[in-house]
Design brief:
The chain is built from twelve helices and nine strands. It is α/β, with parallel strands linked by helices. It folds into two domains: about 210 residues, Phosphoenolpyruvate-binding domains (TIM Barrel), CATH 3.20.20; about 40 residues, no CATH class.
């Protein structure tokens, strides 16, 4: 499976909204994610699939299909597998579901969304599936499944486990789910910062105003860049031996590795 360049922002657009299917590409999101699942009512899924196929034929995008191992998903894959940059599979609960999609969309990168208690417990199995390129988190569906709040503290275990599962399987950092309050910029920022702190990279958005916040949070701050440069300078001066910075911070190989990650080295 080829390495995937991780987007910071995934911007959703419902597959049945002809106006948004045009406008969504002009926002500046790293990746457009056209939705055939929850955003589309059942009685217009066929029409949405036609619209999305027409758009995907001319513009790079990922598509969220319907749930694996269903007839409607099979129709999604039959129409779109040869057109899209990648496929997001919703509500994944097993590696068998990943394999089922991969068989019908060979060679297409797959982003597997964890949105249920069963999915959380199977996250390592899912991430280890050969066809799984990325993991993503669906907090609203998970909260509904658990009967809990989707808040930071209430979902910490599940989100942290996704980070561990992805890393253990040798896959990139998972991406965070949506913040449903469109006008809540501060809440959006706090949620995105919390996701970054525990090891996520990237976040899904449901409105254009959320995209710049995601980009800002997942870009290194001037303070982080200065810290990383100071750490690497000290580490290089020591010849790779444990040392300390001018400010007195201890530096060893793991600290230097984090500094390189911040600098994109």
């Amino acid at each position: 499976m080829p390495e995937i360049r991780q987007p910071r922002s995934w911007l959703f657009a419902p597959g049945h909204d002809e106006k948004l299917l045009v406008k969504v590409f002009d926002v500046g999101a790293d990746m457009v994610l056209l939705d055939l699942e929850d955003a589309v009512p059942p009685h217009i899924k066929d029409r949405a699939r036609e619209l999305v196929a027409s758009v995907a034929a001319g513009k790079p995008c990922w598509v969220r299909v319907n749930r694996a191992q269903t007839e409607v998903c099979e129709r999604d894959l039959g129409a779109l597998a040869g057109l899209v940059s990648g496929i997001r599979i919703p509500k994944v609960e097993s590696a068998a579901e990943v394999a089922w999609v991969a068989e019908r969309a060979p060679g297409v990168p797959l982003d597997c969304t964890i949105e249920s208690a069963r999915g959380v417990l199977a996250a390592f199995e899912i991430a280890s599936a050969p066809a799984c390129s990325l993991l993503s988190y669906g907090g609203l569906d998970l909260a509904a499944d658990l009967g809990s709040s989707p808040g930071e503290q209430e979902t910490l275990y599940a989100r942290s486990y996704l980070v561990v599962a992805a890393r253990s399987a040798g896959k990139p950092k998972p991406s965070d789910g949506v913040h449903p309050q469109i006008n809540d910029d501060e809440g959006m920022r706090q949620e995105t910062e919390a996701a970054k702190r525990i090891g996520f990279f990237g976040k899904s958005a449901i409105h254009p105003r959320q995209v710049p916040i995601i980009h800002e949070v997942f870009a290194p701050t001037p303070e982080e860049l200065a810290w990383a440069q100071q750490v690497l300078w000290a580490f290089e001066q020591s010849g790779g031996a444990a040392t300390k910075t001018a400010s007195g911070e201890f530096v060893d190989p793991p600290v230097a590795k984090r500094a390189r990650q911040i600098l994109g080295q």
